[in-house]
Specification:
binds zinc ion; globular; two-stranded antiparallel ribbon; alpha+beta; 29% helix; 18% strand; three-stranded antiparallel sheet
């Protein structure tokens, strides 16, 4: 996967920082996870069973009639249950991971630097999740949906 190097400037603390980005428009079902330290991992929703399982749990809890961006919610849940990067930061699968200094997400329009971002892109790992029994997975998803304000607290 080819990554491009983008320059960001935080609107809150003015820190300039760089993050990778990939054009995945021809890779349907593939999502790049980026942490605010610039670590990357990829989620292939067709080959990784975590995607179908989380999708099923989200659908069970929220029902079919809800008017929300289901795909966004599923990716936010997967981000939350996946293993963190070596700095303890989550891999964000939707939108920007935030400023490495202050964590705020408001950034001036990112600018492509013209450079490639050199990094291997391993699959997004979720060892902790894999070791949980199903009930714990289900309860965790339910609690995350409540945190997002999408579900009554358990
Ligand atoms: Zn900042």
């Amino acid at each position: 996967m080819r990554l491009q190097r983008y320059r960001h400037r935080c609107r809150s603390c003015q820190t300039e920082y760089f993050l990778p980005w990939a054009d995945l428009s021809f890779f349907y079902g593939t999502f790049l996870g980026v942490t605010r330290r610039g670590e990357v991992a990829v989620l292939d929703s067709f080959s990784d069973p975590v995607f179908d399982e989380v999708s099923m749990l989200v659908s069970n809890y929220l029902g079919p009639q809800e008017t929300y961006e289901r795909g966004v919610v599923v990716r936010q849940v997967i981000s939350a249950i996946s293993d963190k990067d070596p700095h303890g930061e989550p891999f964000v699968l939707d939108g920007l991971p935030g400023c490495p200094e202050c964590g705020k997400k408001r950034t001036a329009a990112p600018k492509f630097t013209g450079e490639e971002w050199m990094a291997d892109v391993p699959p997004l790992s979720h060892e902790q999740w894999d070791n949980w029994p199903f009930l714990q997975r289900a309860q965790t998803v339910k609690a995350l949906l409540a945190e997002m304000g999408l579900k009554e607290p358990p």
